[in-house]
Write a structure and sequence with these properties.
The chain contains 18 helices and eight strands. The protein is of the alpha/beta class. The strands form two sheets. A five-stranded parallel sheet has the order 6-3-2-1-8, with helices on both faces. It is globular and about 65 Å long.
């Protein structure tokens, strides 16, 4: 099923590219350890995203991102996220590369004559990713099927030409990049210096040392454009990034998808409302992912997401202003519209055969408990209060 079907168009999604353990030519365990060494802020953003979005889309090539998630959060937490439909994977089959001898940006993917291990079918890659964990024998046997059911594939060859064209246009339209490339004698973007004719280089992500030469710049730009293309494919309204070209990503994302710095706005709201660092609490084992998931999927959680994306995404102060409005509206249960609602409900009870006799004694309880609880539980303010009470 496509992620952007008509029944799902109203869902709020984020493309969590900072959770992408990007493929490189090194040892998988080294990549895993480097991700963990730099990953604490990424997991904090992931936890925030569970509250702000209906779905979190994690890109991957060989499902090492699954290894990281299960290794840090545990298989039970990951299964809960998958079962709720909150966590999904976008599997990129292959990798973008820069090929010497005039090849320029090309796709690196499985072929019949030379299969690449990271291009194997999803079920095989999921099994490979989980077997890398020390506690593999204790992992719930249902997890692989849940992951496969939550994964959508995109072949790199299907997006290569778009990414290649956009990347070259970014360079040609940039006076500073054009001047830099020309200064080094690199007038043909497909024939940049630094690679022998039979050599290939790929972009290995934030956790690998980035070589800041012309080919490195091209690959970083290509990674940025690839992220945007995949986020668009997944129907995501926002994205995080693993590309060092942060400013370009921000400008292009705002231009193409009207994305905002939602993590910045939520940070302001957290400060104003006294919400603790929930990501850090999860990592320290003080709050269970399942509890946050249940809270996020409550009626007040759904109302919070709708309220946040409608009112708190314009600038850092918008969240503070809108939260102040919520506080001012705290007494809405005593307002005329709600009194009218009380009258309608209690009167309707009296019209139901067999209920009218007891409607009088029951009306007070309904008035003071049911309606106030209904309004409270569907309020984004109530959701924020529950978050702020977590210590």
């Amino acid at each position: 099923m496509a992620m952007t079907s008509c029944s799902e168009t109203n869902k709020k999604r984020i493309f969590a590219a900072d959770m992408w353990a990007v493929l490189n030519f090194g040892q998988p365990n080294d990549r895993y350890q480097r991700f963990l060494a730099n990953g604490r802020p990424r997991f904090s953003r992931l936890v925030d995203s569970l509250l702000l979005y209906d779905e979190v889309i994690v890109p991957t090539q060989d499902f090492l991102s699954l290894t990281v998630l299960v290794g840090v959060l545990g298989d039970r937490a990951v299964m809960e996220l998958l079962e709720a439909g909150t966590l999904r994977f976008l599997r990129l089959v292959g990798s973008l590369s820069y090929v010497g001898n005039g090849g320029g940006i090309q796709d690196l993917e499985q072929s019949a004559s030379d299969p690449l291990s990271f291009c194997r079918p999803v079920d095989q890659m999921v099994e490979w990713a989980l077997r890398g964990l020390e506690n593999y024998s204790n992992i719930d046997s249902r997890l692989p099927d849940l992951v496969c059911g939550a994964a959508t594939e995109v072949h790199v060859r299907a997006v290569k030409e778009d990414v290649r064209h956009e990347t070259y246009m970014d360079i040609l339209k940039s006076p500073s990049l054009r001047a830099r490339f020309a200064l080094r004698g690199n007038l043909d973007i497909n024939r940049l210096g630094g690679l022998d004719p039979n050599e290939v280089r790929i972009y290995g992500g934030l956790d690998e040392e980035w070589k800041n030469d012309e080919i490195g710049v091209v690959l970083a730009l290509a990674a940025t454009n690839l992220e945007l293309r995949l986020a668009q494919h997944a129907g995501c309204m926002d994205s995080s990034t693993v590309s060092p070209v942060g400013l370009l990503l921000k400008a292009k994302a705002e231009r193409s998808a009207k994305a905002r710095a939602e993590s910045r706005d939520f940070a302001v709201l957290r400060e104003v409302a006294g919400i603790p660092d929930l990501g850090e609490a999860v990592l320290q084992g003080k709050i269970a992912v399942g509890y946050l998931l249940k809270l996020s999927r409550s009626r007040s959680g759904e109302e919070f997401r709708r309220w946040f994306h409608e009112h708190c995404r314009e600038d850092p102060l918008a969240a503070a202003r809108e939260y102040a409005k919520l506080l001012r509206g705290e007494s809405q249960i005593k307002s005329l519209p709600v009194r009218v609602l009380r009258y309608i409900v209690t009167t309707a009870l009296g019209l139901i055969p067999g209920v009218g006799i007891v409607a009088g004694p029951a009306a007070a309880a309904l008035d003071s408990f049911f309606l106030e609880r209904w309004v409270r539980d569907s309020s984004p303010k109530f959701f924020i209060e529950r978050l702020s009470q977590m210590k």
